[in-house]
Amino acid sequence: MGEQDVEFVKMEGFHRLSSLWKIDYRVVTVEPFLTQAVTEETKELVDTILGRSLPKGKDLPDAVPLVIGDRAVVTGNAVKGIFRHIISSQLTEAGVSVCSQRVKYGEKGSPPSGRAPECAPDKPCFVCTWFGTASRQGALYFSMLRSVEGVERILVSDPIPLIALRDDYRAIEAKARAFMLLAPVKEGVEFRGWIKGENLSEEIIGAIKEIQDMSEKGFVHFGGFKTRGFGTIRMQILKVERYRTVPFGLERTYEGDELQGFLKDCQGKYHGLLSRGKKQ
Ligand SMILES: [Zn+2]
Questions:
Q1: Ligand 1 centre from 137 Cα, in Å?
Q2: What's the 124 CA to ligand 1 centre distance in angstroms?
Q3: Within a domain: 123
Q4: CB 3.0 to 4.6 Å from 191: which of 3, 27, 123, 230, for a disulfide?
Q5: Is 1 contained in some domain?
Q6: CA-based angle 123:194:97, to the nearest 5?
Q7: What's the predicted TM-score (pTM) here?
Q8: Three-state secondary structure readout of 75-99
Q9: How far is the CA of 147 from the centre of ligand 1 (A)?
Q10: In a domain, 166, yes or no
Q11: Residue 178 in domain
Q12: 110 Cα–ligand 1 center, Å
């Protein structure tokens, strides 16, 4: 383990700020979409919007989107988790050393096959460098993703009943109900958000572009009930801004054709990293 470390472009460190980045992006739901673990209050709000169309025996829908203000929201942390997972598993398949966090495999356990043990703080792997660890901040910051339209305009018009499985109950609440009622965001709904970063490399920007490409083919899912067909999204990077730091100011904005060219170059760098993995 660890002898086949693959070189990647290192981050200069947090003590030295050489560039700041802002990546604006949009997410459009391809399938109905739900976030989990919401409050009773949100269920009541959604119930009011739906206009009391619930069948007998149901006071409130079992699952509704997370709502903040009047917008459906995906937390930055949730987006970060999905991006981290996709990039980690792709690098692992390519044979690029990626660690597994100790909290996931425990003090006495060992990391899953193909993964290195948690990296030392002074020698972070590619994923820990950009996404951080429990004890060390990363260089990427994910905003909340907010629906462009108010929640009253983006829900499915009728809640969707589903036969409840044991796993679903864990996510909802342990009441003996024969079915669940889901009130998801409908398909074709747009969310907007951004990713900010310090001293980003072209490789990590290319990795984010890689996720966009996977999403275009339907392989990226957000939220709950994924195995029941919910949560497929399409992601699109809209604009990348690069700021210089001394003195602070906008250095370059990539949009349109220029953006596509820049992302293609970055993705080439990321593919270079993948190809340097031991599995070639
Ligand atoms: Zn690591």
A1: 12
A2: 5
A3: yes
A4: 27
A5: no
A6: 25
A7: 0.86
A8: CHHHHHHHHHHHHHHHHHHHCCCCE
A9: 33
A10: yes
A11: yes
A12: 14
Enclosing domain of residue 57: 19-275
Nearest to 154 by CA among 59, 46, 236, 78: 46
The verdict on whether omega for the bond into residue 121 sits within 30 degrees of 0, i.e. cis, is no
Residue 169 alpha carbon to ligand 1 centre in Å: 33
pLDDT digits (tens, 9 = 90+) for 229-244: 888 999 999 999 999 9
Q: Minimal CA–CA distance to 49: which of 75, 73, 71?
A: 71
Residue 92 to residue 95: CA distance in whole angstroms: 5
How many structural domains are present in the chain? Answer: 1
CA distance 102 to 119: 9
93: left (phi over 0), alpha (psi -120 to 50) or beta: alpha
Structure tokens at 273: 């990293």
Residue 127 tokens read as 């994923």
Ligand 1 centroid from CA 117, angstroms: 8
* Gap from CA of 101 to ligand 1 centroid (Å): 7
Residue-wise pLDDT tens digits, 62-83: 777 888 889 999 989 889 999 9
β-bridge partners, 211: none
Tens-place pLDDT, residues 182-221 = 888 999 999 999 999 999 999 999 999 999 999 999 999 9
Residues with CB under 5 A from ligand 1 (ion): 99, 119, 125, 128
